[in-house]
Amino acid sequence: MPGLVRVILLALLIWLIIRLYQRFKALGQQRRSASKKQSARPIENMVRCEQCGTHVPEKEALEQDGHYYCSRAHLPRHR
Ligand SMILES: [Zn+2]
């Protein structure tokens, strides 16, 4: 009888370890996918300068008549 109890206890312990391991693994995957999303967020929409072809973030680019320019110097002076 005590031998059977030991087997049950051992099986319970193994089951608990497996459950904990699976939970830990799932948590790690969640964290990894979350950090992936965060790293993907800073990639902004890039626009191309009409004058020199340089790619600049849309926020930093200068827009004129629907066209983007990297700097003030590349803005067409006459329209
Ligand atoms: Zn330019």
Describe what this molecule looks like in 3D.
The chain is α+β, with helices and mostly antiparallel strands. It has 2 domains: 1-43; 44-79. It has 1 helix and 4 strands. It has one helix spanning 2-40, and strands at residues 46-48, 55-57, 62-64, 67-69. The strands form 2 sheets. The protein has a two-stranded antiparallel ribbon with strand order 1-2. Strands 3-4 form a two-stranded antiparallel sheet. It is rod-shaped and about 95 Å long. It starts with a helix and ends in a 10-residue tail after the last strand. The site of zinc ion has 8 residues, from loops.
List keywords for this structure.
alpha+beta; 1 helix; two-stranded antiparallel ribbon; single chain; 79 residues; two-stranded antiparallel sheet; binds zinc ion
Number of helices: 1
The share of residues in helices is 40-55%
Number of strands: 4
Secondary-structure element pattern, one letter each:
HEEEE
Side-by-side strand order of the widest sheet: 1-2
Mean pLDDT score: 87
Structure described in brief:
The chain is 49% helix and 15% strand. With 79 residues, the protein is of the alpha+beta class.
Architecture blueprint of SSEs:
Layout: H1 2-40, E1 46-48, E2 55-57, E3 62-64, E4 67-69
Antiparallel strand pairs: 1-2, 3-4
This protein binds zinc ion.
Zinc ion binds next to loops.
